[in-house]
Amino acid sequence: MRDRGADVRCILTGNATNFVTPLAVQTLAGNKVFENTFSLTDEHEIGHITLARDCDLVVVAPATANLLAKMAHGLADDLASTALLVTDKPILVAPAMNFRMWGHAATSANMALLKSRGVHAVGPNSGMLAEGESGLGRMAEPAEILAAIETLLAAGPLKGVKALVTSGPTYEPIDPVRFIGNRSSGKQGHAIATALARLGADVTLISGPVKLADPANMRVIHVETAREMLGAALGCLPMDVAVCAAAVADWTVSNASKEKRKKDASGQAPLIELAANPDILATLSEKGSARPRLVVGFAAETEKVLEHARAKHQRKGCDWIVANDVSPQSGTFGGDFNSIHLITASGVEDWPRITKADVAERLAWKIADVLKGSP
Ligand code: C5P
How far is residue 339 CA from its own chain's centroid? Predict the structure, then answer.
């Protein structure tokens, strides 16, 4: 953060000092570190509390289950929790804890309460946890926390621009228990939503069922089916830009059963009838006066990537197509890297193999360049 020009002041909780020394944090922050040795009658310490208002953003990293519970319930028994109760600035928490603690109903309720009060969150991620177990509860990586901070403080080139992003798969029910889905992780779409928000856009993310946490600083609408995704997208118009990164199911099950299907005594497998789903990208591209100024689609192909993507560009009526190879050997689905070709009216750009976050950032800047140039 200091590299980005921020003036950083740290409060260490008592537990934090068991992990890092105040001197180390002070050296890195370049400012005196405040610790928990305080009493509210000490004038010097009350001065420290004004710290919590004399800033642009308060970041809690890591945010333990205990600290989140204290925040949710207004406890202020140390300097950090007191500062959080007294601040009038946005708060960003980066939860980090054992996966069972994260999954506990108490923590879920505390997080829901904090979010309803406007507290922003980044993470947690899935991965190795301090106790040697693996699960959802690992603190977001420093770069992700930095990105969330920049998003919250953004006054970027997309300020005032309304952006719609669809992400993840859709699930089409066969019966109340079973569905037809696909392998989309939502990583690329969520990264695009984050990158657009970081540049200052007012982002609405419509997400199918994914294992990712909601990104900070945007509206997230959760849907399951293609029809729900279309309904949510149309309900968001007007928008300045729409990026359809979701892997929408092409078909829905037209004979979906209200009850769980049973095995036939004769052993005969049931017939699943399919009907075409609405095409969200094509619908948004056709919207006449309500059409977003820029409509961007994706073409996930397993062969003849450019040929199929060019055809899609024509057929769907969108402005740009981001074409990528999702054949099993590419590692794109669920992976962190992507190599894409950007198809626009003026031709094809081949981008090198870069991370999905970098694809998102590059695309967001390109969107900013185009939208800034048109009224
Ligand atoms: O036709 P195909 O599914 O390959 O097209 C991919 C592009 O179209 C993606 O941008 C995807 O989000 C969008 N799409 C859509 N609604 C559908 C099918 C695809 O928005 N029903």
Answer: 21
* Residue range 12-60, pLDDT digits in tens: 999 999 999 999 999 999 998 988 755 555 556 667 677 887 888 999 9
Q: How many CB atoms lie within 10 A of CB 73?
A: 10
Q: Identity (one letter) of the amino acid at 19?
A: F
Distance CA(229)–CA(252), nearest Å, equals 13
- Supply the residue whose CA is at minimum distance from atom 7 of ligand 1: 298
Pairwise CA distance, residues 253 & 146, whole Å? 43
Nearest Cα residue to atom 21 of ligand 1: 279
129: helix, coil or strand? coil
Which residue bears the tokens 């968001």?
A: 236
Both tokens of residue 254?
A: 């037209």
Q: ∠ CA(80), CA(86), CA(90), 5° rounding? A: 90
Structure tokens at 371: 């939208």
What Cα–Cα distance (Å) separates residue 320 from each residue in 216, 248, 293, 313?
26, 18, 12, 7
Cβ–ligand 1 contact at 226 (below 6 Å) = yes
Residue with tokens 């621009």: 161
Q: Beta-carbon neighbour count of residue 217 at 10 Å?
A: 22
* 182 classed as catalytic: yes
Catalytic one of 110, 182, 217, 277: 182
The token pair that represents 372 in the structure block: 């800034």
Residue numbers of the chain with a pLDDT score lower than 70: 37-46, 48, 154-155, 373-375
Hey, what are 51's tokens? 């710290």
Q: Does the CB atom of residue 246 touch ligand 1 within 6 A?
A: yes
- What's the gap in Å between 208 CA and the centre of ligand 1? 13
Q: Give the chain's domains with CATH numbers.
A: 2-153 (3.40.50.1950), 162-372 (3.40.50.10300)
Strand extents, DSSP E, 188-311? 202-207, 219-222, 241-244, 251-253, 274-276, 294-301
State both tokens at 321: 């197509």
What Å distances lie between residue 304 and 193, 308, 311, 331, CA to CA?
28, 6, 11, 17
The residues, ordered by sequence, that sit 6+ positions from 4 with a Cβ below 8 Å of its Cβ are 146, 150
Look at residue 264 and give its three-state secondary structure: coil
